[in-house]
Amino acid sequence: MHKFDEMYAQLPFIDSAVRPHYRNYLDWLKRQDPQTMRDRREEAEMIFRRVGITFAVYGDKDEDGAGTERLIPFDLIPRIIPAHEWTSMQQGLVQRVNALNMFIHDVYHEQNILKAGLIPSEQILNNAQYRPEMHGVDVPNQVYSQISGIDIVRAPDAQGKGEYYVLEDNLRVPSGVSYMLEDRKMMMRLFPELFSQHRVAPVAHYPDLLLETLRASSPSTTDNPTVVVLTPGMYNSAYFEHAFLAQQMGVELVEGQDLFVKDNFVYMRTTRGPKRVDVIYRRVDDDFLDPNVFRSTSTLGCAGLMEVYKAGHVNICNAVGTGIADDKSIYPYVPQMIEFYLGEKPILNNVPTFQCRKKDDLAYTLANLDKLVVKEVHGAGGYGMLVGPAATKAEIEEFRQVLLAKPDGYISQPTLSLSSCPTYVESGIAPRHIDLRPFVLSGKTVQMVPGGLTRVALKEGSLVVNSSQGGGTKDTWILEV
User: Which residues cross the membrane (predicted)?
Assistant: First the structure.
């Protein structure tokens, strides 16, 4: 299998084969004393722990049976992308997110893509993420996913060159942007000299762009919209991010109990009395948003919220029902969506995908389980999946039975050799597999900060980069020309 490393054109690491955009960085790295770098790593860990940049891991339990808080490991070696590669990737991301927003609007309105037969109707209408309550509901700017986290991987082609692919679309409540911002802050604190030697595009203005996007998504009932961040509470795995973004935007962080509905408007309780809310940046899943409409036992949302939403007196970002477009059974159709809605060829390719609901695709998957990655269509966080080449025979046989029992719940993909990037590990510097999650903001226009969150699989040979599975993060540098 071909391999592609971001820093070196040849593996194992050969300095003469370093890629041009990494040359200055490598010259600097070779001048660093190993003990100094170890000290910097410890300093970063101490600061992250002090600030509380942790991630709750539900699989791990402490003595009381509660989920444990884990520090997300931070790697000191940045992932560097040259300007021309970013420009092309950015164009592909804008194209993709525009098509996805048009698709969501279509399935809740005219359903032209279903009438054209491009996607089987039952795959939409019987999907657990499809919300019939949203049919015919108009949302500001016809934008459903204001914040999209698109996972990009690079894998070698037949010539060994690296090609970017979209691995999945996260359109419900994508997380991780706070780590992108904190990683950059940490690199600038530890190595200020690097930023005077490299023209690294800034990312610190992301909270400003996010607030601008949310305010632009307000209903037309006000000129000066009030934005809030709705969190499930401090026990949620991404609570640090909810609090961080609210603080960075200068808006209130609220829980469901802080909101109430009166006269078809939403209000938050404040020490000065009720204040009307126009835009809710929700970090709560659809099922918990309104106990009158979805899960009746939910205490995380606000009773009556959907009525106000449908009346156009509040906007929920991302929109209710957006999950229909980030379901892994819908992902294979995104290239057709781009052609159908935009009349363009996709700039970024999908990873080849087999839909186990299809008889031939299921047969192929069952015959090649040891070579494929099999994912649950509603899965997230690296759970509910099989990485064939890394699985035991017993695990493969167990998964075979799961697949046979519910084939329409799974897709499979070839095991991509994700690109690697030099990373600090216990034994020194070694290649580890990475991906990239850029964050695309859609308001009246589509914009993003250059780069995104680079996640790294810290176990040797592992392809699973998710924080919940022990992955770490790196700063992502887009070099300006």
Answer: none
